Amino acid sequence: MKILAINGSHRKGRNTTTLLRMVLDEAAVQGAATELLELSDLNIKFCTSCNKCLNRSQCSIPDDDMAIVEKKLLAADGILLGSPVYWVNVTTLMKNFMDRSRYLHIYKNLLDGKVGAAVTTAGLLYGGQEATLKVMEYYLQLQGLHVVDSRDPNEVIKTVIAAGSLMEGVKDDKMIFRRTAIEDELLVASSKQLARNMVKLIRQLKK
Ligand SMILES: Cc1cc2nc3c(=O)[nH]c(=O)nc-3n(C[C@H](O)[C@H](O)[C@H](O)COP(=O)(O)O)c2cc1C
User: Fold this and answer.
1) Which part of the chain is the NADPH-dependent FMN reductase-like domain (predicted)?
2) 161: pLDDT confidence band, cut at 50, 70 and 90?
């Protein structure tokens, strides 16, 4: 069982990387083979809207790193997307990846039946995490994936999303910030549960 994480952060190795690694580590504990792909390491050109993918499962841009991503997406059983919130939305890198992967679903749905999930971090406490997460989850659904959330079915519900913030709160009119987003214990708990839910569903679907 393989789970591929794709990080849309423009800053490799920071909050979103740490969060994705945490989910992957828990997935590995549950028995999955894992890989983290940093979009900031790759050269992926913009979609030109040539619309050739309406008639074939192939992109007309031949000479960039989308081929590497395609290979990994097709080989994965689970796809985990991570993006920091940029303007209450995903980052440019994440959106560009989404646009360029249109050819994987529009003619034939090549990722159909895999398991998907998404995580996000933001600067502010209520900084647009839910909207950002929804953009990634809608994308995964449209690509034909079964999207899992971070609910622990055996416990009282604590959170419905795997999303965090650097901001912890406000005291004496001053904002209090964490050093990293994963100092948020609810984010840690929900992200680890997300990993367990992904692995569980992949196992069920493989039976
Ligand atoms: C261009 C830009 C836009 C941002 N927009 C928001 C925003 O709308 N809401 C928010 O809470 N944080 C926003 N942030 C803060 C980031 O979400 C936050 O710093 C995040 O933890 C960065 O993730 P990283 O450490 O993986 O880069 C923005 C940051 C940048 C650079």
Assistant:
1) 1-147
2) confident
Closest CA to 6 of 89, 126, 120: 120
Nearest alpha carbon, ligand 1 atom 20: 122
Q: What is the pLDDT of residues 68-115, one digit of tens each?
A: 999 999 999 999 999 999 999 999 999 999 999 999 999 999 999 999
Query: Is there an atom of ligand 1 within 6 Å of 123 CB?
Result: yes
Structure tokens of 174?
A: 């001053």
CATH number reported for the structural domain that contains residue 163 in this entry: 3.40.50.360
Domain count, the chain: 1
Q: What is the mean pLDDT of the chain?
A: 96
The total of other beta-carbon atoms located within 10 Å of residue 94's CB is 28
Query: What residues make up the domain containing 27?
Result: 2-206
Separation between Cα atoms, residue 52 and residue 130, nearest integer Å: 33
Q: Ligand 1: which residue has its CA nearest to atom 25?
A: 15
